[in-house]
Amino acid sequence: MSDRPHVTLEDVARSAEVSLATASRALNGTTRVRDDLRERVLSAAAELAYTPNAHAQALAGGSRRTVGVICHDISDPYFAAITRGVMRVADSHGLLVMLAGTFADPDRELACVSTLRAQRASAILLTGSAFEDRAWERRMAAELEPYRRGGGRVAVVTRHRSLKADTVAPDNRGGARALVEAMHGLGHRRFAVVTGPTRLTTVADRVAGFREGLAGLGIELSERDVFAGSFDRDGGYEATKALLAAKHKATCVLTASDVMAVGAVSALGAAGLSVPEDVSVTGFDDVPLVRDFGLTTVGLPLERIGAEALELALDDAGGGGARGRVRRVSGEVLLRGSTAKPRRRRRG
């Protein structure tokens, strides 16, 4: 076995004084490299006796026509609807979609981005909430910037505070405010909120919208009115159980997502309460699942959001997402059977 150290593509790029992306393109035979730069790369590779990893080249060549979609939970209908929109645009561009779930774990999200970078995906879409965490933001930027400099495309869905990327931004705060106003219009004056972890930007923005909407109507939402759980159906169920155990007198339960609302309705039913006769329940998103369920919610065009995210990423005018363009998407309050005027004689 030879003791000579393994020569990497990075070594070739450093010796030729070009970027890693330029070195890769020159060695792969692409025409998008100036002749003088190509000669420098080829000379450096010959001088260093660089031997490309055939398996890595095959992997990279096969995955250049892929798009990586990173979400929190692939079983959540919210992400399924967004991904459907991504797939529609990807198919029109001859791209294959790879889906990765993070289980709302920031370290796992970073690992997914790193893996997609290594496989040289054409684009990376972050479709889940950002984390209210400065350290995570810095680490994510450190992963995405070199990927983008190497020709990768990036776009995100929902607010990512300091991450410079093209964004499709649902109006979570505005939708939450409008929902509160609609429930107030039905006659509700006592509210509780069932929500996911506020370290997620989507959750933080929706709860802030509930607070702002209520404050504008002269109603304070105290910490005793907010019940948190995981951002899924089971979290909605457990948070509503806590609400019931606290003997909260809300006539309307505002939940941070449709899937949490499904859990909330189940918990209320298990306690012998009827929706909306005893208490009204609202959701957020309008995933297909809840349309037959009759859930009052804030409808978002989820498939369009996914489609626009990939369109932004693939748009050459956007510099791979580095320009930080924002497409804002408004929601619509959809009144359905899970809400009604509060009864005069309330439970308890």
Automatic annotation (TrEMBL):
Gene3D superfamilies membership: 3.40.50.2300, lambda repressor-like DNA-binding domains
Alphabetized SUPFAM superfamilies for the sequence: lambda repressor-like DNA-binding domains, Periplasmic binding protein-like I
Signal peptide: none
PROSITE patterns on file: HTH_LACI_1, HTH_LACI_2
Keywords for the protein's UniProt record, in alphabetical order: DNA-binding, Transcription, Transcription regulation
GO molecular function, one term: transcription cis-regulatory region binding
A Pfam family recorded for this sequence: LacI
Domain HTH lacI-type stretches: 7-61
Name the record gives this protein: LacI family transcriptional regulator
Organism: Amycolatopsis methanolica 239
Upper classification of the organism: Bacteria, Bacillati, Actinomycetota, Actinomycetes, Pseudonocardiales
